[in-house]
């Protein structure tokens, strides 16, 4: 992971050099955060949990069910034939005993926990980028010093 981040920052530094503007620490941190697999994965999870949270906040959690039945009924023993009989029904589960509020609380808690994980992943990506950026700056300084000592000899 460390070498991947270092390579990413080196690539960003080289590409920013082609644009005649040096890569700043803030830009390196922003780019590393935007490209971080951990941040991207947490953001995808956050979108999924956000959808579940919105679903949990609906008044009627489950969809209603419509049933239609058809049957034949024979007439009495005198037997003058048969008749069709139809039955139509609708059912809607209703949560009782605080189920709905508990489901909403659980969804809200999951959403908050995941938001904290996203922020933590962002902080970690930015911290890693800052560390790698400083390593690159130190390496550049060493190269300049070595070049200066060799050129002055």
Question: Please, could you describe this protein's structure?
Answer:
There is one protein chain. A hairpin with a 7-residue loop joins strand 1 and strand 2 (82-91). With 153 residues, this protein is of the alpha+beta class. The chain has helices at 2-18, 25-35, 37-56, 99-152, and strands at residues 65-74, 82-91. A two-stranded antiparallel sheet has the order 1-2. The longest helix has 54 residues, at 99-152. It starts with a helix and ends with a helix. Helices cover 67% and strands 13% of the residues. The model has no long low-confidence stretch (mean pLDDT 82). It is rod-shaped and about 115 Å long.
Q: What Rg, in angstroms, do the CA atoms define?
A: 32 Å
Secondary-structure-based class equals alpha+beta
Would you count the extended β strands for me? 2
Low-confidence stretches: none
Work out the strand percent: 5-15%
Main β-sheet description:
2 strands, antiparallel
Task: Provide the helix percentage.
Answer: 55-70%
């Amino acid at each position: 992971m460390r070498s991947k981040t270092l390579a990413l920052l080196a690539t960003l530094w080289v590409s920013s050099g082609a644009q005649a503007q040096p890569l700043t620490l803030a830009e390196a941190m922003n780019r590393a955060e935007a490209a971080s697999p951990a941040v991207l994965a947490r953001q995808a999870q956050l979108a999924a949990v956000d959808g579940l949270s919105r679903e949990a906040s609906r008044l009627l959690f489950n969809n209603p069910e419509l049933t239609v039945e058809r049957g034949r009924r024979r007439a009495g023993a005198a037997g003058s034939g048969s008749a069709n009989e139809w039955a139509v029904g609708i059912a809607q589960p209703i949560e009782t005993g605080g189920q709905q509020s508990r489901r909403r609380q659980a969804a809200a808690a999951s959403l908050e926990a995941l938001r904290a994980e996203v922020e933590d992943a962002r902080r970690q990506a930015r911290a890693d980028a800052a560390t790698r950026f400083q390593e690159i700056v130190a390496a550049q300084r060493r190269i300049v010093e070595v070049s200066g000592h060799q050129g002055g000899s």
